[in-house]
Design a protein that fits this description.
- The chain is built from 18 helices and 21 strands.
- By secondary structure, it is of the alpha/beta class.
- The chain folds into 4 domains: 114 residues, Cobalt-precorrin-4 Transmethylase, domain 1 (3-Layer(aba) Sandwich); 132 residues, 2-Layer Sandwich (Methyltransferase, Cobalt-precorrin-4 Transmethylase, Domain 2), CATH 3.30.950.10; 106 residues, 3-Layer(aba) Sandwich (Rossmann fold); 125 residues, Rossmann fold (3-Layer(aba) Sandwich), CATH 3.40.50.
- Strands 16-15-17-18-14-13-19-20-21 form a 9-stranded mixed beta sheet. A 5-stranded parallel beta sheet has the order 3-2-6-1-7, sandwiched between helices. It has a 5-stranded mixed beta sheet with strand order 8-9-12-10-11, with helices on both faces.
- Helix 8 links the parallel strand 13 and strand 14.
- Helix 2 crosses helix 3 and helix 10 runs parallel beside helix 11.
- The N and C termini lie far apart (55 Å).
Length: 501
Amino acid sequence: MSGMVYLVGAGPGDPGLLTVKGLELMKKADCIIYDRLCSPELLDYARPDCECIYAGKADSHHTMPQEKINELLVEKAKRYKCVVRLKGGDPYVFGRGGEEGIYLREHGISFLVVPGVSSAIAGAAYAGIPVTHRGIATSFRVITAHRRTDSQGKNSEQEVCLDYSSMLNEEETLVFLMGLCRVEQIARGLLQAGRRADTPAAVISHATTPEQRTCVGTLENIAEMVETRGLTSPAMIVVGEVVGIRDFLNSYEKKPLFGKRYLIPKIGQEPSRLAAALREKGAMVTETLVGRITGIPARYTGKELSEVDLLIFTSANGVKYFMRNLFSSGLDVRALSDMKLVVIGEKTAEKLREYGLIADLVPQQFDGKTLAEEIRAVYTDVFHRPFAWYPTAKNAGDDLVDDLLSVCDCGRLNVYENVACQNEEPGDGELMSYDGIFFTCASSAERLFAGRTPEFLARLAAETKIYSIGPKCSSALTAMGATPLIEAAPHTYEGLLHLIN
């Protein structure tokens, strides 16, 4: 029996514009076939074992012809239970989703469409242009300006034939998609049909992403302005009086970090909370995977846990994999009822709350000596010399344990491992192009900069701001020669964000 194919609209570029239903399907998909215009961050939601296939299309170049994509959908549906066809914008707005649906039906494959946010509306809105506005525009029209292609995905000689004489209503907003290389022809066609030369026009490149650039002019000069600005595809063209109110509504391009580019080497496949916070401020963020988290199974007994006075967590992963082992041992949170829970950092405390547990102690600073002193001050009189468990990474250092031994008996539990992974890492030139690089642990610094000379790292730090979350990370960066650097205080994601406010 064949599986189900979902034609999912990924939205226009901002990963936050994916619908809730689309996100749910991304998380459970066995196979995802995605287009060029889909935000790459969305693939972070895919299961580790999900097969992800790129079927992107660009003007004059198709990675995979449409006929091959149709065949691939049928092939994967016969193999998998849940296949997601992820398409930029909305599947049925110039996305050829209708063609794919018809092909699936003809071949006996069940499918459902999950509509997406179309760039025709969202792209204009992010540029401060509403497609309708009372007293200015009572309707809008969405038009494809893209050339037709042959069966191999190559441009044919035949151009899309546009009836410009039907586009003379000044109360109608015209939105042309996929037409960057035809701005001049479109403007000329409208002028020849009778539109005023001073009709406002805008071209929006990479709409709804931090790379968004907007060029505003009139039908008379927009083509020349676009060429001067050097805009790149994907781009959309908006023609109409609504373009004139952009100055009042343009808020996205005025975000505090708009136009800034940052790099985050990360551990683990899950989307980074730090990256999300930077994007919210308008920054363009590239995440490069330098490590994966793998759990280390273990079984605990109720008797063992009853002897523990303090449970100390210094990371969300420590919480996650300790709790996983607790449950696999046939126990639940009641086994922790007699312990005091000590956590480092709000992110760790937040993870603990997901299991219905509230930390008893959250020190304001994260370093071993400060933590030991706080435990001494709060718990020594209660337990005399407490017995603690410290769930951590197998490849973490012993410095914290050494500090804790001054105030308690500490048993270290290796519940997960931070494993290096082989990914295509940015080259020296690309590293230099960022406004800043954020490091949230020492291992991410060591892996990203492995093989690079101290001389290069010193030159990089002079050109690109190096941000460190705390002393241990700063020590690793300094040892490699990546100085000067900027260290967060407090040593949290919020502390890192504060550095650039």
